[in-house]
Every structure is written in C-alpha cells, then in structure tokens.
C-alpha cells in the first residue's frame, strides 16, 4: 500500500536530526554559499530509476514523500517489517540510493534471490541521496535486486527508503580482439591445469575506488589511491578516493584524503612510512566531480604510517599543508627512495593538463625530507635533462642504481644522474624514435640484481609509441599504432658503449605494467595496442579514451633466455576486461599478481572503456605446486648481516639443486611506472642440517635502499609466500631542519590556488621556486 505525504517522514519518526554539514571546499561558479554534497551520480552509460518508476515493485506499506532534496523530488519509505522493494534489470551492476538518519534501520539486500548483505542505514547525521549498496561484478544479463526492511535497528519501527536505483547497463559484446575460448571465468571459478605451464586467471573482488595508484603495505592489505571522482565507495557522506583492499577477504575500507591526489607519485621511506606526493588542483567547474571539498593537491605530501595490523582499522592518511608540503607544485611526478632512505621527487608539471610543455614544465628534483644539498636549502634543483626531453616527459622512468647513482629515462632519452654531485651522464638514445614516457607510456624495470655479477645494473624498457610529441591532439588518433619494442641497456662502460639491445614483444602495447616475479621473470600485462595515454585529447576517441584495442593476453619475459626465446604466452589466459589508462598490476606477498583499474575518463563512466572496479588475479604455474615454507621469519635484515632461515622444503624438492633467496620491493604502481620495483638475490647457502638457509643481507644501502622489503625463498623456480622485513635499522631518513624551515619560509601553501587568486591584483607576490 502506498500512502502520500508532503513531509519528509511522519511526525512520530521526526527525531531531532543532526544538521548535515555542507561538506565541500570550492564554491561552484555563480553561487555564494556551498551546499551539502550528495553522492547520487549517474555516470555515462548508466541509467537511473527513480522511486516512482513503475519498474520498481513495492510490497507492504510504503509512503511517498516529495522534496527537492530527493532524486527527481520523490522518495518512498517504510517502517513496516518485511516491506520490500524489487526491480528486475539488465546489466552488470546496480546501486541503491536513499537516506540515512537516526530513524533508519537495517535492510537486507538480495540479488537474484540470494541475500548478499545486511546494511544498517542508521546515521547520527541526516544525509540524503546516499549510495547505500552497490555491486559491479555481475555477469551481463537479467538480474533482480530486492531490498527488505528487517524491522531491526537502534529505534522502534525503523525506517528504510528507496530514492533511486542506478543500473550499470554493461555491454553484450566483448572486445573484438578477445579470444573467447580463453575468456576470464566468472567470479570464484576455479580453473584446472592442462599442463605444468598453465596459468590461472580469476576475477574476484572490487576496489570501490578506481585503482589509479596501488602499493602493497602488508601481507593483508594494499593501498589504493585515485583522483577525486564519483567512486561508489563512500566516507563521511561523500565518495572516497582512497581505500585499503584486503588481500585475503577482498573487503575494502575507505580512507579520508584531504587533497586531490590525481596522478600523484609515492614511495616508502627508510622507516616504513609511505608518502604520496603531488596531484591536481581543485577541479572546479570543469568536471562533474566539482565541489567534493578537496584541497589543492599539487604540493601535497600525504603521510601513511606503517600499518602491519591485519584489520588495518586504525590506518589513515595524514595531511597538513601548512607544515608538510613540497616546495613546488607537481603533477605526474615520479618518486623513488634513495640510499639514505629519503625520497627523491622528479619532474612533473606545475598543473594538470595532458602533454607537458615549457610553460608548465617543472624540470627539477627535490627531496623529502628537504635537503640542503647543492645550495638548494630545501628548494628544487634544476635538472637540464627534463628540459631537453620535452614534450613527452611526464612520469619519468627512474631507478636508484647499486652504485648510488640514478637512472632516468624520459621521452627518447636517458641519463645516469649523480645526486651527490648534481652531474648528468648522457646515455645512448632509445632506438627507433620510440618514446617511453607519458603520454607514450612504456614499462621500465631494473632487472634483477645478483651478487654473482657484483649487482651489475641492467634496464629494460618495453612498449611506448613513436607518435610525434610535437603534434597537436587533433592530429593524433586513437588508432595510431603503439610500439612492440623492448630495449635493454647494461649499465657498464662496455654496455653503454654497445648501446641498447632491441627485441620485439609479440604484440605492440603502450601503458603496459611490467611485474617482476620472484623467479626473475617479468610478467607484462595491461595496456592498449593503439592510441596514446589520457582521455579527451585526440581524434577517434573511444568513449573518452585516447587509446583503443586493449591487449588482453599477458606475456612472460625471461631475461636470462637466449635472444628470440624470451617471450612466451604459453598457458596464459586472456582477460575479458580491458585494462587501459589508469590500470595497475602488482606482485602480492602470496606470489600471484593483482590486476586492477582502468579509467580513461574525466569522471566515473560506464561507456566503452568505462571506470573499472573489478579485480583480477593472475596465478603463475608455481601457485599450484608444493611450495617452500619459512618458519618464524625474521622481521628485520641489516646490511651484511648473516641470518638463518628455517625452511620446510617440499618433499618433491628435497634434493633441490637450485635454491635462491629474493629480496623484493614490490613498488608503488601508477601510470605504467613501478617506482622502486626491485629484486635483489641475496647470498645464501644450505646449512648441513638440510632444513636451514643462511642468508646475508645486502652489502650496502645502494644495492637495496633502506626500508621495507619482501623475502621469497625460491626452490627450483617455486617461491615461498613472501614475508615482510625492514631492511636497515628502521630509522627515518635524515631531517635537515634548516632546509625544512627555509622551504616553509620561501614557498606558499597551495601555490596554484594562491596564483589564481593573485591574478589581476597589483599587490602581493606569488612565490614560485620551480
């Protein structure tokens, strides 16, 4: 039964609601007073069904309410136990929007007849148009959602309401490049092994926020960071743009971020603290994500303290721009950890955009914590390399080398930078006019380091594009071919003189992710066969994507195999999920590969190449074998320290001939850049008891910069589950208080926002030290 009412709810339910805060920052153009934020959002490619839709069927007693604060001014609520609302739809996902307040109670949600969740809609703060339930990982087809009032809660006769359902309509046709015989299984499906080389691919879990940036923080969680947009995961009444994803349960917990972290970089420091730096200004009226209440993120240094807790319940991100910030604004900067445990922050541009240019270029490096090195006193240090490499030089490929120098690649060029002397050594140009950095992003890796050759460094670059970076967007097409080139350079005098060694991948791709495995092999996943990174910039866009033709089959690269035999996709499974711009992949402590993200869109979208929240898991063949087991692993490893590991070796490998111990940094992943990705094989020997391994820590900080790492014991190409260690003494990086104080004195808080306010004013001065 439906009852009409012109009030929010009956007087008998009208508690003294807490006033909803106007949670926002920027005031939209043409208004003087910010209004309360409402998460209700219908992305392109989705469809909204208001509570008055005839497609929604109500049973029990429901009341119609009308108010401009509701979607389409209508809402239906009930306080009757057992009352239900049901809608059948065709698509791949659905969201339920409604209200929260102190009169609300617990609802049960059913999908296709199966109860999937009980949700408590009680809130101490009254909020409208809230996303109460969402799911996006259903197979395309007909589904039914049912919401039922359980009559339970913190009050008598608790209310639930329906404001709107938003359906993700999905697509009936998979990308044409997909081999349907190898398509990804449905969630939870277990695949059988046809051979010892058979890989697995499972889709299980959703991230809640788009996985633009990702890093493993513990054996139970990864940290995901996105830009400000209408993600389905909410925190404090607004969409979240960061979350913790549980590797074991696949649960997600939203994190509060104060500033816009769009296209930021990140690294761990020597004490295990993670910093996430740079980002984007407050977007204002140029995107539908405006008025989220975020701060300017261009100079932000976001702090995430070590969080080993299995629940991660107290893990949070901290910001304080008045005391903790970079000296200069940076968007698309790369961040690495160097041998003293501090962060080197490289390049970027002074504001968001697309292709870099000399007007917005930030051709500098700076350090966190700030240093007084080279008379900088905490301010940026000019790097000519980042001027020479315009235009396509954002998110440069940067690695700390075992001789304490820095490898950098940008556009078509590369150098070795000595950070202690501020000297550049040019390296041979990358062959065949191939560009390797944004928006022609390639994958870059420091190949495994080993004591057998005294930790000699070698660089691998795969993919990218030969598109001319001086062309305007209207002369670049989403159908322009990517590059299949892989180039290797041995960083010895002889290797540099010989130049890059060129190989070809089986398929061209840009925006690939290259993931080091404990075995020393490299898994290359994600990316597109044509186009260029970004969205909304070129001709022949697909949806908003600048790229097309997703590459759906991973390829394994073996650096030690003979030339011509290094690439293989034997036993690989092809995915049905395009992983385009803003995709990520990482090795997990368990040894499989987590693949997530893809969002070549201004805001969340459900058109072709829309915003992707589903997570896939790539399982190498070793995941199905008996694996070594390390008992009571150590939590710390000093340089040159000898430690004994107690290892249970599988019976099948009791007489193993090949035992290795890999110390790995799993990296901070974003935009095809795997910053700090590193594999160092440790000196090790089998103790006479046959059950113990003696290992020796890295010889010096340059080989493995101090900070967190993961150790895997590999027996005949089968690794153990990784365990986390702190390499070094666990102290924080050196703090130069003079440099820090000078940075705060000589720079403004959120300079970009200050500069906008100063335009047109004669008085005052905008300090820009870039």
Automatic annotation (TrEMBL):
Record-annotated Galactose oxidase-like Early set domain positions: 627-727
Alphabetized UniProt keyword annotations: Signal
Stretches assigned to the Glyoxal oxidase N-terminal domain: 240-622
Keyword flag Nucleotide-binding: no
One Pfam family matching this protein: GO-like_E_set
Methyltransferase found in the keyword field: no
Extent of the signal sequence: 1-18
UniProt protein name: Copper radical oxidase
Superkingdom of this protein's organism: Eukaryota
